[in-house]
Amino acid sequence: MGIRITPSILNADLADLRSEIARIPSSDLIHLDVMDNRFVPNLTFGLPMVECIRKSTTLPLDIHLMIAEADRWAPGYAEAGAESVTFHVEASDAPVRLARELRRLGSRASMALRPATPIEPYADLLPELDMVLLMTVEPGFGGQSFLDVMLPKIRRTRALLDAHGGDIWLQVDGGISEETIDRCVQAGADTFVAGSAVFRADDPDAMVRALKTQAEAALPA
Ligand code: DX5
Ligand code: ZN
Fold first, then answer.
1. Residue whose CA lies nearest to ligand 1 atom number 9
2. Which residues, other chains included, contact 191 with Cβ-Cβ below 8 Å and sequence gap of 6+?
3. Domain regions of the chain by residue span
4. How is domain 4-218 classified at the architecture level of CATH?
5. Residues at CB less than 6 angstroms from ligand 1
6. Are 133 and 171 in contact (CB under 8 A)?
């Protein structure tokens, strides 16, 4: 199982994103949190910003849409050249149609779940997906504490993914740091969003590398 670190730029200097992204070249992807003040009580940026970021880095873009009406807006991010587009299943009327559309447009299709949304009702959708994102905080803000109560859901999702086969990534997002990443690896996650842990570090790229090394060491033998 490969380990991927995808730093969230939510806690970076948003007025100087080109430099901020240049500080984390060891990242596997760059996690971009799009919020609309409807699906979550916070507002960040949308497609024009992502289009500019697309032109300013060759690192793969990992778009996390925390927006209502995902079916309407998500395909635009795939068209903009994002390698991965994540929609919240709670915000999609037709997740299968949307996932197929994202793949048709050349992006990986990814489905996110809020902490209170169980994975089991969506087990049959796995063949349509390239990644499942499990929120490990309530979505909306960086810098929150990891919710340990999510560990059983990570384990159950890993079991479903293993039973399905294939290579679907399991991403966790919220409160991931050197203190919490081991538990997530052991529960079965392989793709780690880290916002404040990376951008509050003195050397953000060293933190990206340290998290990756630590996660790889925590993998079951
Ligand atoms: C929160 C966002 C996260 C956030 C993570 O709703 O989806 O990606 O930026 O930040 P940390 O790592 O600080 O919890
Ligand atoms: Zn996120």
1. 142
2. 3, 4, 6, 28, 131, 169, 170, 171, 172
3. 4-218
4. Alpha-Beta Barrel (3.20)
5. 8, 10-11, 31, 33, 64, 137, 139-144, 173-176, 193-197
6. yes
β-bridge mates for residue 84, sequence order: 62, 108
3-state secondary structure of 212: helix
Q: Report residue 89: phi and psi, to 5°.
A: -65, -25
User: Residue 202's pLDDT band (boundaries 50, 70, 90)?
Assistant: very high
How far CA 50 is from CA of 41, 55, 83, 92, 193, in Å, comes to: 20, 9, 12, 21, 18
Query: Is 16 considered catalytic here?
Result: no
Sign of the dihedral through C-alpha 5, 9, 11, 17 = positive
pLDDT in tens, 45-97: 999 999 999 999 999 999 999 999 999 999 999 999 999 999 999 999 999 99
Other C-beta atoms closer than 10 Å to the C-beta of 91 total 24
Respond yes or no: is residue 130 known to be catalytic: no
Q: Which of 66, 77, 78, 82 lies closest to 30 in space, CA to CA?
A: 82
pLDDT of residue 201: 98
Q: How far is the CA of 217 from the centre of ligand 2 (A)?
A: 24
Interval 145-166 mean pLDDT = 97
